[in-house]
Amino acid sequence: MPNDRADKILQLVNDAKKIDVTQLADKLHVSKVTIRKDLTKLEDKGLLQRKHGFALINNPNNLSYRLAQNYDTKLRIAQRAAQMVEVDETIMIESGSTCALLAAQLGKLDKHVTIITISYFIANFVERYPNLDVFLLGGKYQSDSQVVVGPMAKAALANFRVGQLFIGTDGFDPNTGFYGNDIMRTDIVQAMAENAKDLNILTDSSKFNAPSIIRSFTADKVHTVVTDSGIPQACSRVLTQNGVQLIQVDA
Amino acid sequence: MPNDRADKILQLVNDAKKIDVTQLADKLHVSKVTIRKDLTKLEDKGLLQRKHGFALINNPNNLSYRLAQNYDTKLRIAQRAAQMVEVDETIMIESGSTCALLAAQLGKLDKHVTIITISYFIANFVERYPNLDVFLLGGKYQSDSQVVVGPMAKAALANFRVGQLFIGTDGFDPNTGFYGNDIMRTDIVQAMAENAKDLNILTDSSKFNAPSIIRSFTADKVHTVVTDSGIPQACSRVLTQNGVQLIQVDA
DNA sequence: GTGATTTATTTACGAACGAAACTGATTGTG
DNA sequence: CACAATCAGTTTCGTTCGTAAATAAATCAC
């Protein structure tokens, strides 16, 4: 299946929440059989749900939905980030969709890694990989994003100090730094960063033009950014000026 | 749909892991259309998965699977137990399937309740009820049963002291008490009990003839048992002799 | 007890399904 | 250059799907 048709299907499904096979076939000018095959593959990747006659969007607040946006780019970023992790290392992972793919990549590489996370989605996402040990922080459960937050989660962090923390971001402004769009999640991520030597950000380049609400980190706090080649020059210059290691995977 | 056919379908699906509609229709002597309707309802309850042409068992370690056994009895037990919880109360819930139904019942009753649990299944199960606040303990994630266990989870308990704890059980022996079949889960449940005033056990009566591996509690530690009318006399006598409040819902 | 309503099931039918065979374009190999 | 292998997509086929209308049994009202 060509990637651009996969993207178009995901776009259409995400816009409509629910769309039937016939409509997809009409809009994309291929047969229904082809659409059905595409949908089966996309369902296997966890990017949508199939039902008899139509395709359903995953819960939009759910990571499965966010995974569906720029899936291939995120996958390449995650593959690159997985190289940064040593065998038997203990890392922290936040709740971003690219972070979930990083965890899955580590699982596939069959390296033993211990993962500390706030995300129940990620814990379940890597269920099938016995080489991954997962520790979840406790706290107030945010059911829409499937993470724990709040003072209890921050207190639980006191038990851990790791070399690397991997997070996503919701936005970036060249003058001021990285942003999140949920105050509770931003708060816990900042606390995680204080207990990690290196702060690594995984994000597709679309976020570099999307300033968001709550500043999470100034650029100089960041060790490495892994993104794709679509990042604006203004942003990449600021990052390198602040001593950030910038890794770009091919588009 | 008659309840006994629903039970038979669940039995057949659970035994076979995967069974097609035609076979179910033959064995139960009804039409395929009727089977399909039954399967749709059972899927809506989360007790199995439908695919084109057949029904699939839920992951057997998963609570969804355990929920499917004696579903109606468990539901009645949960409904009765929900009456024991006050508005604005904070309770602890362990990972049992009947406990999950208790949480859902509390959600449906629209009382505000704060739930502290080790089970991510339960946290997600009650996602849609805004009147429930869920706090999860942190710890080592056991992906098959979707709970956190281990010393970190026990340490997290230090922050909480509640009036009531609700747990399930895997077995009971009249001479020695209640049993679990997983040492890590038994360990954390015992720690939970130390931080709760009343220990309440919710279980269908089938467990009273199934001694299990690890003793969790002697009968005298238990405040209330909610079960169905199928409990053997020998067991109910021992319980009441030990000062346990025994509540039996109709079969 | 009789007629009305509800519940359970079947029959009928057009749409959707998966699997397999087929077609045409692209890629790799000697 | 030829020719096999792979890939993307379509056509075809027998099966399963969901919905709606028909039928039968159980429950209820009075």
Automatic annotation (TrEMBL), chains A, B:
Domain of life (superkingdom): Bacteria
Domain HTH deoR-type: residue ranges: 2-57
Signal sequence annotation: none
InterPro entries xref list: Carb_Metab_HTH_regulators, DeoR-like_C, DeoR_HTH, NagB/RpiA_transferase-like, Tscrpt_reg_HTH_DeoR_CS, WH-like_DNA-bd_sf, WH_DNA-bd_sf
Listed GO MF terms: DNA binding; DNA-binding transcription factor activity
Keywords annotated in UniProt: DNA-binding, Repressor, Transcription, Transcription regulation
Gene3D superfamilies: 3.40.50.1360, Winged helix-like DNA-binding domain superfamily/Winged helix DNA-binding domain
Pfam (any one): HTH_DeoR
Functional note: Repressor of the lactose catabolism operon. Galactose-6-phosphate is the inducer.
Record-given protein name: Lactose phosphotransferase system repressor
